[in-house]
Amino acid sequence: MRQGDKNKNYHFLFNNQLLGSQNMSQVFNFSAGPAMIPAAVLKKAQEELLNWQGQGTSVMEVSHRGKYFMELITQADKDFRELYNIPDNYKVLFLQGGARGQFAAIPMNLIAEKGKALYLNSGHWSATAAKEARNFAEIDEISIIEEKGGLTRVNRLDFSDIAEQYDYVHYCPNETITGVEITEIPNVGNAVLVGDFSSNILSRKLDISKFGLIYAGAQKNLGPAGIVIVIVREDLIGKARKATPSIWNYEIQANADSMINTPPTFAWYLCSLVFKDLLAHGGVDAVAARNLKKAELLYSYLDQTTFYRNTIAKENRSVMNVTFTTGDDELNAKFVNEATAAGLQALKGHKVFGGMRASIYNAMPIEGVEALIAFMKKFEAENA
């Protein structure tokens, strides 16, 4: 057999294997990240995998500085700005290193004449960000959550009296591990507000002008792991300390279209498809309505059962990450195992918090939540 025929046969088999997987029994993936990607996006990527833009190659094999890829990133920037209504005086950077890389990059770029920053601690990830930032600057940290009556709630969001003594104030609006979400934007007066939106970016409307910088790892609502988006106000660019590595320097990256080295091209491409998919389905307003409906459905069930419980105050319940427990570790483990066998994947809670966690990001259809509730009712009837 000629090599060309072998390649054709391989491509035929490969495509059939991918298409065949769509005929399997429906599986709902509740992973906290990497998380679900819209089925239409995966299908489009599958169709283009071997022949992108009629070039006979995949997007992973073309030059990131070539005509077609440069057109892709230009359109991705435009689509993302449209989705989030990003003002013209903000740069959008597509970088590597995930949100954790930004834990270091932010103080290296934003610590200036005041020499310190304030971190609002609402859980594991905001605390982790503060810990990393201490390697680069003086950091003050304030806990903004309290445990009262068996519930966790946010107890303070007004820092206008102290914020302006800091170069910036950092917070995490959605803590994936505990399922705590902060929907109100903290009041920091005229200080620079920084937000880690990794787990709830594009899940609802947001006034970008209230922030100096927003960053988000892609693997929840934007696309696959491997890329992080930074939205930074232009007047904050150009202040990086001399020792800042070029790859973390916002000014250098902005001047190079986020490409001072070879970027994660496939992740960038998939993000661009997600943006188009969101725009085609009504944008952020539409997805926010769907997200709220999914969350209300699941929390409504949790509120009427005594078998499971959620320990987050209603005003701070996450729309993206719904945590719950039976109160019995062995029963929790049994729940996770049986749910997995039923096609409800990745419901085990984080090791820090335990219990169960249903991550219902933008790509989770309401049918997934309905299937989860049906299973929860069945499990309760069999184990109560």
Automatic annotation (TrEMBL):
Pathway: Amino-acid biosynthesis; L-serine biosynthesis; L-serine from 3-phospho-D-glycerate: step 2/3; Cofactor biosynthesis; pyridoxine 5'-phosphate biosynthesis; pyridoxine 5'-phosphate from D-erythrose 4-phosphate: step 3/5. Its main location: cytoplasm. The keyword Disulfide bond does not apply. Pyridoxal 5'-phosphate binds at residues 99-100, 125, 176, 196, 219, 261-262. It comes from the Bacteria. Keywords: Amino-acid biosynthesis, Aminotransferase, Cytoplasm, Pyridoxal phosphate, Pyridoxine biosynthesis, Serine biosynthesis, Transferase. It is found in: Cytoplasm. Its EC number is 2.6.1.52. GO terms for molecular function: O-phospho-L-serine:2-oxoglutarate aminotransferase activity; pyridoxal phosphate binding. CDD domains: PSAT_like (cd00611). GO terms for cellular component: cytoplasm. It catalyses: O-phospho-L-serine + 2-oxoglutarate = 3-phosphooxypyruvate + L-glutamate; 4-(phosphooxy)-L-threonine + 2-oxoglutarate = (R)-3-hydroxy-2-oxo-4-phosphooxybutanoate + L-glutamate. Pfam families: Aminotran_5 (PF00266). GO terms for biological process: L-serine biosynthetic process; pyridoxine biosynthetic process. The keyword Transferase applies. Binds 1 pyridoxal phosphate per subunit. L-glutamate binds at residue 65. It is an enzyme of class 2 (transferase). Belongs to the class-V pyridoxal-phosphate-dependent aminotransferase family. SerC subfamily. Catalyzes the reversible conversion of 3-phosphohydroxypyruvate to phosphoserine and of 3-hydroxy-2-oxo-4-phosphonooxybutanoate to phosphohydroxythreonine. This is Phosphoserine aminotransferase. It comes from Pasteurella bettyae CCUG 2042. The lineage of its organism: Bacteria, Pseudomonadati, Pseudomonadota, Gammaproteobacteria, Pasteurellales. The gene is serC.
